[in-house]
DNA sequence: CAATACAACGGTACTCAGTACCGTTGGGAG
DNA sequence: CTCCCAACGGTACTGAGTACCGTTGTATTG
């Protein structure tokens, strides 16, 4: 019954020692000793010293990969902005553990780098998914996918960090709002010949002139094909 | 005259050995031996084994910091999107060295992570700069700054990687275009009463009708204050 | 020219993360 | 009871990074 307790004892001992002496000042031997197990056992449960703090980033990544694979949304961006919620929910589920990890990563550069590298893997996954979804090998489409993935991850990190710092009580709805903002950033692509689309396209701008003054150039733009 | 040659010989030896045997299969002793220096000398010139490949990320970061500190642009976003060009120019200046590094980071996970961590420091700098520039402690403004910084970095990485892969011959103008795209993503905040801003504002949309058909409703929108 | 100061170097020894391998133990399943 | 197997502990090793010490070559100053 208490067989997999070693893994938990190791994590507890690690966090406790990290709090007491700091991360660099704690050796793996220290952790193993406090947990009452051998050094070998530590590396059987965790691949590295950092791994004690980030145990299930891999699992979460594949979880999201599956979610994306089985998702059917109107656009790739929306699918991704939906899937990324799983990450937030996972952290919330971890509760206090996630917050202890945050205070650690705030102090120790090595851990922060490690966390960032993990987040980059999500971003890469998102970028590739959106690019595949668009199916447009154009350079501008590629850039667009890159921007979308970056925006989703940035917005997610923003809300997540706010929750980790205790600055919000309802991170889920904040995440909804943030993702709406992100989706709103990227208007539907214009010009790609879909069915029945010989209509008018207006681009957004602001001006100090009134509508009548700029109407001629507006008309020239609309009638003159792709304008600058 | 040939006194700081040790540093260069070390870098050459390192890159050569990394190409021959791979990164993990090369020890610091190997590098020092081929460079004809002692092991201690290696660590005098480079803080770590990874540092041989990323020698001047710190210098570049402070360079950009200075650039931002002494820059006067219309918005924080534009200042940042201007400053980030320094990074691209630096890589272009490195030339072939940057490309050899890219092939390495593409293969070795540890190096990729390291590179990502460096980029994250730029992004953090940008985020803080934009947030300071806006001077708006609101949560939405904070999110906006985060999105802007992420977009600038993503666009930069996009163009940089294209150049590293040899997919573009004119990365500078491509960077200009990408940054224009990024700036265009973020419209000026509306509603904040600036001086003399009683002009016309058009929102973006697409329609199947031609311009004359929708002109009346357009006019109604413009004249009728804030329309939905 | 001689004494001194300094910077770069080489060597040794150490700590610690991570890997490989081997033997031991403690239960279930046949 | 015996076989099996999973989890464990111990030992030994490699390699990165640090600390310290002694040496050498070079520039500076009296």
UniProtKB/TrEMBL annotation, chains A, B:
InterPro entries reported in the protein's UniProt record: Homeodomain-like_sf, HTH-type_TetR-like_transc_reg, HTH_TetR, MftR_C
Signal sequence annotation: none
PROSITE patterns associated with the record: HTH_TETR_2
Feature: DNA-binding region: 27-46
GO MF annotations, alphabetized: DNA-binding transcription factor activity; transcription cis-regulatory region binding
Pfam family, one: TetR_C_14
Keywords per UniProt: DNA-binding, Transcription, Transcription regulation
Keyword Metal-binding: no
Residue intervals of the HTH tetR-type domain: 4-64
Keyword NAD on entry: no
Protein name (record): TetR family transcriptional regulator
Organism for this UniProt entry: Streptomyces antnestii
